[in-house]
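Proteins fold reproducibly. Consider a sample protein:
=====
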Amino acid sequence: MPKTIMIVDDSASLRQVVCIALRGAGYEVLEARDGQDALGKLTGQKVHLIVSDVNMPHLDGIGLVKAVKALPAYRFTPVVMLTTESQAEKKAQAQAAGAKAWVLKPFHPTQLLTVVQKLVLP
């Protein structure tokens, strides 16, 4: 049974690139346009990993990580930040909130898949 990964980004084109890479590697993909949309789609189904942007409207990536970690069903779901942000302060905030990895945009799909394969829940 394929593992499910949620991609959260306000850029439709970026979501598309990530979806193509993940689906090509055999993953099921859920898409959300921002943190608020993502929380609305986390309805108890198994999600093995979340890949999220940091800067988004309505609820940013760090806020999303905090909210996800507060949900019992998703408390242990790993979150990877995929972002243009390179500030150490933002990185530290994301780690403190519970993010497991930080991938800078622009990224190479194989780079993202390597991180995903290491962190995806069994």
The two ends are 11 Å apart (CA to CA). The beta strands are 4-8, 28-32, 49-52, 79-83, 101-104.
